[in-house]
Amino acid sequence: MLTIRTVVTSAVCGVFLFGCAVKPIQMTSEEQFKLTQADLSKMFADQLMVDKPISLPEAMARAVKYNLDFRVQLMDEALKRGELQVAMNGMLPSLTASAGYNDRKNVAASSSESVETGDTSLVTSTSQDKDIRTKDLTLAWNILDFGVSYAQAKQQSNQVLIAQEKKRKVVQNIMQDVRFAYWRALSAQRLLPEMNDILDNAEDTFQAVDVLQQFSIEDPMVYLEYKQELLNLVLDMWQLREDLSTAKAEFAALINLPPGTNFILKQPEGELPIPDLDIKIDTLEGYALANRPDIREEHYQARISSEEIRKAMIRMLPGFEISYGNNYDSNSYLLNSSWKQLGLTLSWNIFNLFTGQDAIKAAEAKHELDNMRRLSLSMAVITQVHLAVQRFNVAKKVFILSRDLDDVEQKMVRQASASEAAEMQNEMEVLRTRVSAFLATMTKDVSYAELQNAYGRIQASIGIDPLPKSIESNELDVLASAIETNLTNWQSNL
Hints:
The chain starts with a helix and ends in a 6-residue tail after the last helix. The protein is of the alpha+beta class. It has a four-stranded antiparallel sheet. It has helices at residues 4-20, 29-43, 56-66, 68-89, 143-215, 220-245, 247-254, 281-291, 293-314, 352-417, 424-462, 476-488, and strands at 94-103, 109-110, 125-126, 131-142, 319-329, 338-347. The longest helix is centred in the middle third of the chain and has 73 residues, at 143-215. The radius of gyration is 39 Å and the shape is elongated. The chain has one domain: Outer membrane efflux proteins (OEP).
């Protein structure tokens, strides 16, 4: 008949043997393919299809709702909240339940021997059954451990706040990237068809110029110089074309649209609005120092290091534990098989008085480092605000000049096209003027995208939240409306 000892021994040996048999197993190509397909389906799951032109507020709303980087930050915040709950559980007393069974093959018998004479005073006897069952339920609370756990819980609560600030920063960066990518993609959507037509026309003109040069009696340098100028302009167009061709793909990635998705961006009506900044620089500085996510992170990090000092001081104190237990022992020789027990324990590791000083000094140095890092970051933030304002003013001026240049170039195109002369040279001049005007239009669009980017950088540099603190629902239309209202009125809310 199998005994409990035999069963336990066999189980331990089996676990040991199985543990030694574990080897690394590589994924097969089929497994990797299945995991990849599953990941792809998760990346774009539960997303509304694009069935209408996308406006800038809707693009920002899609980025907030579907962007994978933002989802990662949401999961990180949830993880930190879970870790906070675990840290708070550490403040609870311990409640330990135990049960045991002891089986002897022989009797636990003994005799008594006199220390002075060496004579046996009692015959061999026992006071213990061969089979004993025990049960215990003990509640224990260490005040020193409670103090340490309390400080750790406060540290973890600040980690939750840091996760929230990281989420704010991700949202701000995504909104700025979406704003810039939107205007670049819109420019590509509007200009690429015309650019392709001009490039096709240029190829035909180059061939015509070569033929005309062979049969013309004029100086060949006239045609060569013209072709040189036109080739330089066309080369600039091709370089800009490459940049525009990737604009829509970059924009689609920001709002988490599957690659190759066909979408149309909403074209603003009328003249492109020029954003204005009507806030004093000192107001922007004050708001930035109070609301930038990275500065708030440093404040919370300083709180964490401050709690580390408190933990080091608590560990230097003596530990005081209170325990209360309910016990049972099946030994039939006992007068009382059940009993309750109250215990008070005071313990003190004297060496902590010496090692604790080093721990306190290290924690204080970390706290001072955190404070100094925050001061350094504050200086950097003030500089970023000033640079953002300067870049915005420059970008605004550049856009106004590029817009004026585009107006002049378009008038020149109309003037050249209205000419009644039909010579080949005039057609070449019309093409040259058209290419130059198109480059001016592209320059205007690029400068406007830079202007919007500079404007968004001001908002990011002072910590403006694109999302309001509370939103009625997570629907795209509601998010888009909230974002549009918040970003339109941000200056008046300072």
